[in-house]
Structures are given as structure tokens and as C-alpha cells.
């Protein structure tokens, strides 16, 4: 049996998908296309370090091989999408580490390897078979957008991180929620259900405890992003402040699509626009507002993503098999 491996290495978790080389079809698949999947810890090298990244990826691949009875000689190609990897020197370091993984797992010396950004594998996974043009908007802990035209050129927007960017992301939604609490306390903003919900979640008795939390504790961005779920819950309960935070995030994500249209004149009002990420998955208010924006601004046709980022990585690995 001949297999390829697609890896989606994120800052929260890592997905590793094993696919038979003949399982890809221009018409899609009839079987569960992601049944041979294993999930592991985060492998963003800027979060866990390159050495730990290598250890975790090697362990996850080995676990998947054992789980699905895949032999080292069965692996024809591996493609990996990693968050935070973009510079040439980083890609070279990752490639060197994968060569070590291949050697230590006894892969064939003819096994192919390729590395891509996490956004690019997500785009490739989102595009349906025989569709070669589209835009993918990503909103999870961070946010960005990526698109490709029929010529194969790739265009990007966002991805600047939580200090310079990440508008419309879980982190920004969480920060806006915290700001709404202090504004309500100061009587500079409306009262909101978020005050009780988030202070209770953080086990704080008073809004002033947020000062130490932000400036002394300095929570990681994924911790702030977790607060987004309280915004979604408050919006579901009719809280205007929470709803407005989600609507503003949807508008920011729409700006990503508009920027890609400016960068690529080939995009038009029928270009597929797809979404991925936990914020789109769990917030109907944000998603519906985003859909309305796309339609009213004639930025494309909203569609569900075809498959996962790990599938996109596996597809890229398949393209490297002769």
C-alpha cells in the first residue's frame, strides 16, 4: 500500500492525515476522506521551539503509522503546513528536521517532502475538486485571508499577529470584550452581560482585577481568544454589546476579502469565498453578518470549505508523488 501524509501544524493542535495515493479523485471521494487522522499537540515552532516541534511531529507520525498499520516503506510523500513558518531560513530548518524524522522512522530515501504555510494548505483543502480559483478567510485565535486565481498565483491579506493585526479574530473579540467591561464600569459604555460572564469565568470579583491580569499576568493570546465564546453566548442571549463586537469582527474579515479583490483583478462576484476557523464555526451571528457583507458588496459566492487543512496538505503531498 502506498500512502501520503498531510500535516496541519498549528499553535493549538496538530492534525496528521494518512491518505492512500489512489484515494484522490477529481470528482471527490465517496468514503470518509479523513478517517485516518491522528491529533496531537501544537507544533508551531515559534511557540514550542524547533526541537520540540520535531519531537512532537515525529511522535505523532509514528503514532499514526502504528494506529493504521502503515509501514515506513508505504510512505511516498509528506507535506506539512506550519503556523509561523514563512521565511526561507525557517523552511530550510524545518526541512532539515524532517529529513531527520524520515531517517529515524526508516522512510524510503525517495520519499518526497514539502512545506507550506498553514493558510495555503487550508486554501487547498477548502477548494472543491476541479475548482482552481477561490478565497479562504480564516478566523480562529488569529485571522488572515488567502486566495488563488486560475493562473495559480497566490494572494494574501492579514497574518500580522495579534499586536499589528488579527482583526476579526478570537483574540480581538476577546480583547474587545474586556474593553467593553471596563467601559461599562466607567459608565463610558453600555451595560453588558459580558461583565458578569467573563469576570466569573476568570474568578475575578471586580473589573479592576483586569489591570493585573493584562499587564502583570500577560495572558497568552490563545487565552484571550477563549473569551470569544462568552461573547457568542451573550449575543445569543440578546446582548447588544456582544452582538456589535461580533458584527465589527465580521466587517473586519470582510475587509480581508476586499483587499484580495484589489490585489487580484481576476476575482469577481462569482468567486468562491470560503471560511474556516473556530470563530466561523461557533458564531452564527458573525458568520451570517459576513455572508451578508459578501453578498451585498458583490465580493463572491459564499461556500462551505470542501475539506480540512490537513486534507489540503495531503493533496499537496499527492502532487509530489510520481
Automatic annotation (TrEMBL):
It comes from the Bacteria. It holds the Pfam family BcrAD_BadFG. Residues 5-317 form the ATPase BadF/BadG/BcrA/BcrD type domain. InterPro entries: ATPase_BadF, ATPase_NBD, Euk-type_GlcNAc_Kinase. CDD domains: ASKHA_NBD_eukNAGK-like. This is BadF-type ATPase. It comes from Salipaludibacillus aurantiacus. The lineage of its organism: Bacteria, Bacillati, Bacillota, Bacilli, Bacillales.
Amino acid at each position: 500500500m502506498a500512502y501520503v501524509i498531510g500535516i496541519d501544524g498549528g499553535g493549538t493542535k496538530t492534525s496528521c492525515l494518512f491518505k492512500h495515493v489512489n484515494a484522490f479523485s477529481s470528482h471527490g471521494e465517496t468514503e470518509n476522506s479523513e478517517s485516518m487522522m491522528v491529533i496531537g499537540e501544537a507544533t508551531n515552532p515559534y511557540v514550542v521551539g524547533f526541537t520540540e516541534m520535531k519531537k512532537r511531529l515525529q511522535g505523532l507520525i509514528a503514532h499514526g503509522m502504528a494506529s493504521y498499520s502503515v509501514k515506513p516503506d508505504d510512505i511516498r510523500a509528506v507535506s506539512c503546513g506550519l503556523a509561523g513558518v514563512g521565511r526561507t531560513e525557517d523552511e530550510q530548518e524545518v526541512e532539515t528536521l524532517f529529513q531527520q524524522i524520515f531517517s529515524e522512522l526508516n522512510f524510503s530515501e525517495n520519499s518526497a517532502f514539502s512545506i507550506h504555510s498553514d493558510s495555503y494548505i487550508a486554501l487547498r483543502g477548502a477548494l472543491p475538486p476541479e475548482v482552481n480559483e477561490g478565497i479562504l478567510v480564516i478566523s480562529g485565535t488569529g485571522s488572515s485571508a488567502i486566495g488563488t486565481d486560475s493562473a495559480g498565483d497566490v494572494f494574501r491579506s492579514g497574518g500580522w499577529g495579534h499586536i499589528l493585526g488579527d482583526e476579526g479574530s478570537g483574540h480581538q473579540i476577546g480583547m474587545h470584550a474586556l474593553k467593553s467591561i471596563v467601559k461599562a464600569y466607567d459608565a463610558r459604555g453600555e451595560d453588558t452581560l459580558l461583565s458578569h460572564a467573563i469576570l466569573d469565568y476568570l474568578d475575578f470579583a471586580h473589573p479592576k482585577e483586569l489591570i493585573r491580569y493584562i499587564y502583570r499576568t500577560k495572558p497568552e493570546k490563545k487565552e484571550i481568544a477563549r473569551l470569544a465564546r462568552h461573547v457568542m453566548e451573550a449575543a445569543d442571549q440578546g446582548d447588544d454589546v456582544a452582538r456589535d463586537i461580533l458584527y465589527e469582527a465580521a466587517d473586519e474579515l470582510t475587509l480581508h476579502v476586499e483587499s484580495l479583490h484589489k490585489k487580484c483583478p481576476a476575482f469577481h462576484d462569482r468567486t468562491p469565498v470560503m471560511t474556516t476557523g473556530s470563530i466561523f464555526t461557533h458564531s452564527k451571528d458573525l458568520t451570517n453578518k459576513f455572508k451578508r457583507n459578501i453578498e451585498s458588496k458583490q465580493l463572491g459566492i459564499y461556500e462551505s470549505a470542501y475539506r480540512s487543512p490537513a486534507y489540503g496538505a495531503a493533496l499537496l503531498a499527492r502532487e509530489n508523488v510520481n
